Each structure stands twice: as C-alpha cells, then as structure tokens.
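Hi support team,

I'm opening this ticket because the web form for multi-chain structure prediction keeps timing out on my end. I have pasted the exact lines I submitted so you can reproduce it. The total is 591 residues across two entries, so I didn't expect it to be a heavy job. Is there a limit I'm missing, or should I split the entries? Thanks in advance, R.K.
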Amino acid sequence: MTLFLFGLFFVLLLVELPVAFAIGVSSSIAVLLSERLPPTFIVSKIFAGLDSFPLMAIPFYVLAGNLMSEGGLTQKIVSFANALVGHVRGGLAHVSIVSAAIFSGVSGSAAADTAAIGSIMIPAMKKEGYASDFSVCVVASACTMGPIIPPSILFIVYGSLVQVSVGQLFLAGFLPGLIMMVTLMAFAAVIVRRRGYAASHARFLLRRAWETLVGAGWALLVPVIIIGGIVGGWFTPTEAGVIAVVYALLVSILVLRTVRIADVPRIFVESAIMTAIVMLILGPATVFGSLLIRDHFPDRILAALGALTDNGLVSVFLMIAFIIAAGFVIDVMVLIIMLAYPFAQVAAHYGYDPIHFGLVFTLAATIGGITPPVGSLLFVACSIGRIGLGEASRAIWPFVVALVLVNVLLIVFPALTTIVPSLFFD
Amino acid sequence: MLRRFYDRLITTLVVVAVTVMLGAALVGTVSRYLTFLPSISWGEEVTRFAGIWSVFLVAGLTIRQGAHLGVDFLTARLPLRVRAAARLVNCALILGFSGLLLWYGLRLAAENMQQYSPALEWSMGAVYLCIPIGAALMIVESLAVTRRLLRGGAAAPPTAPPMVE
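Hello R.K., no limit was hit. The queue was backed up. Here is the completed structure from your submission:
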C-alpha cells in the first residue's frame, strides 16, 4: 500500500499534476481499491483534517501579512534595516538578511516574505551593481528564516499534524532564527568581500536608526503582540492571529491610510486563495496520511533505520539528511505534510523532545525551498530578479551549506531550541 | 453577463465567509476578557466552519488562476505538444477527483443531515455541503481550462509560484 501510494503520487507529480490533486488522486484510488474503507472515507477525512481551530491560524497570519505589505510596511522595515547595517561592507546584502528576519516576525509565510522583501531588495541590489544571481540567492536564503522565526505557517501545520503545541514551536524558533541570521550574514560577508561590494552609506547614525525605527514601529509591534500574547498566556496562536489581523486592518486603514476600505474585499479574496492552496493540500493529505498509518509506515521506517543503526542521534541525522536530499525535488510544504507525523513518531521512539525535533525537521524541510531544481523560494526570487533557476543554482550553494550547518548545530545542541520555551512553559 | 454574476457571487460569498471567520474568532477571544459580555461557546466552531467554507468557495478560483503548486522540472523539458497533452490528462484527473468529491460529498452530507454540531447544534450534513459545492466549482473551472487547452494548444496559464509556505 505504502509503495503504491508513493509510487502513484510521484508519477502524477512528474506529469505536472498539482500536488493537491496528486495526493488526492493517489489516495482516492487506494481507498476505492480497498475493500474495508467506504468511499465516503475520502470526503469525511478531508473535512476532519481541516476541522481544527489551531489550523485556522493559517488564514489569519496570511491575511495579517498581506495587509502589512499592502500597507507599505515592507519599505519601512527595509529602511530600518538599512539604517542598522547599511554601513557595513556589502551593506545591501546584510540589509536583505536583516529585513527578512524582521519581516519573518510579521508574516507567517516564507514565500510571501520572498515576494515582499525580494521585490524591494533585488532591484535595489542590481542597481548598485551586485550580481543578479548573488542578489537573488541572498534574498531567497534569508527568507528561509520566515518559517523558523514566529509566526510560522509551517509550525502551525507541523503542530497540528504531530499534536504538539504551536505556541511552544513558535517560541522555540526564536533563537534558531537569530542563529540563522548571524550565520547567513557571516557567509554573505565573505562573499561580498571577495566580490568587492561597497557599503550603502558611510557610517551608522543613531538619529537615522531612531527615525526609521519609529517609521517601522507599527510593523515591529506585530511580533510583540503575537509573541507577548502567547508568552503571557493570553492568546492561543490562532487568537493571536486574529488580533494581528485586526491590528493590521486598523493600522493600514486608519493610521497609515495606505489601504482603502474598498481594497479590503480584494485582499480578503487574495488571502483566501493563498490559504486554500495550503488547505487543499492538507485535506487530501489527511487521507494519504491515515492510509500510511493503517499500513504501519512509521514502524517500517523504524525497522529500516534499525537495520542501519541503533543509535538515536544517528537515526535523527539520517532522517534529516533524507529530508534535505528529498528537498531538492520535493517542496517544503509537501515534505512536512507527508513525513512530519511518521518521522516524529520515529524520533519520539528514540526519546527525542518533540519540540526540538519539530524545529530540526522544519528547518531541514525549509532548506528544500532554496535547493534547485525544485525550490519555491528560489523560484519566487528568480522570477523577481528575472534570471533562470539554472543561473542561480551556483550562487545558492554557500547559503545552503550555511543553513545545513545551522541544522547540524541544532541537532547536536537541543538546548538552542528548548531553552526559550522552557522559560515560559512548564 | 452570467459570468459576471458568477464571479460577483463567488467573491461576495468568500468575503462573507472570511469576515464571519474573523468576527467569530475575535468575539470568542475578546469575550473571555470582557466579562460583562455574555460568554460564548460557539466562537471556535463558527471560526472552523467558516474557515473551511472559505477554502472550498475559492477552490474554483485557485484552478482558474493556476495557483496550485506543481512541479515542472520534467515537463519543462518536453516538446510543447507533449506538454499540452500532459496538461489535458491533468485536467481529466482533476475533473475525476472533483467528480468523486462531488458525488461522495453529497452522500456524506445526506447521511449526516441528522447529526448536529456540539456547540451550535447545526446539521453537520449542511456544513459538509461545502465540499460538493467546492467540487462543483472546481469542475466548472477545469472545464474552462480544458476548453482553452483544446482551442489554443499550450495557452493555459503556467503553474504560478506557490505563495504560502
């Protein structure tokens, strides 16, 4: 059954059937062929998979992020980042990375981050004489912080599939996100030095930093509300998402006056479409997943790993290596939806902390977003930079290496992920 | 004329569903803190149902816009005619899957008309109707894509980049 499901799924994927339908068609055929399951199992599982209050955080974070970028807050975040790190050699590369880190705290979606930051930073870098492929790759790799720095749609999906606290995952992502930022900046610093890119302005001015901080203040309050609300125990992540939407509506319509009320229905529909793309994969994936569980898929992975090693750490390394390798041809969301539950079962068998494994797993899957030939973040950045994926495939390597290093670091030192949540949760 | 009415109707329903979802979640959250408001038990339930309805109400639009996440690293290397043929096969598969959702979605709804949701005691059968409705919208839009493919060869919109991750 497992082999049939995965085999059919991959064949359908290769003929360019959208992922949602490749999952839906392959699992439907399996259900129809089985004698024990009624065909209504397909429909009722799809509904049950979506019928979850934690999952409803996805539309809220998508909507809040869209309202913020429509409201022109991306430019303000970029100006603030520029005031902070623009004076360093190769300033704009660092500005891209810092802006992406800040924007990750506002939005839940890495691809939306790439579109927002990329459409400002990639043209700006090209204008200053940075190579197109480097500009595209800096932005794409920086936006992998999106799913790690809270809020994060991938953590919402992971949390609901594996039954772990989304709030704890959010907090656990904080420190790893900062480590990613520092590591990416270090790797970028070496490259800009070799290529001789200049700073974007002469020196750091406290006044400029303060003025741009005030300008970006409305955006910077979003992560404060979300994280503060969750840490303080006032809101669940879904409730924090609603508050973020209401805040974004008020700020962009009443305070900044950059969004008109007449724009709101259009933004609602666009956000609903972006949400539906995820949900229409998640629904059928619930059918797929339950078929795998009926076929004892986690036990099979465990048996396969057991044949190679009996060491928990080595098993986790093998699983993560598998995810990163699969990430070259499968995209982030699909990896999480198909493999999060079975892999987390295996990790739990070896006594791994579920939050720690969630972080490590999600980062590994996210790296799949920038590895060619199939990587949605690299794809979005390339289309903004007007270069082909092939041109970007060389310049992306240093950043892939940087992120894999961070991933290894997180596997070896669990405290990096668990220390922040342990301060706030028992 | 009919098409404009259809588009208007769909977008209006989507905006209503999103607004209800937001409103219910907001009231549910706020009423826990403003104790002078009557406490409500239905906030989460309405949020979930409206959220799921909004997903299926835009399901047709996701197909029209080619917004679904797909993988083209093999098909991009194929001759245009072969690629167009693959697209037609995909349309047939999407139609088949949507047809299945429509048929068994109606069956599921019919079987559960007498089941009631815990908080609001709404008929679950009625709530499940979002699936056959979404399936019907997907069928309408995939038929339009198929017609465009048959007329203009490979003129269908390319798979757009996924926007949420």
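A quick check on our side: Chain B touches chain A through 60 residues (CB under 8 Å). Let us know if the file doesn't open in your viewer.
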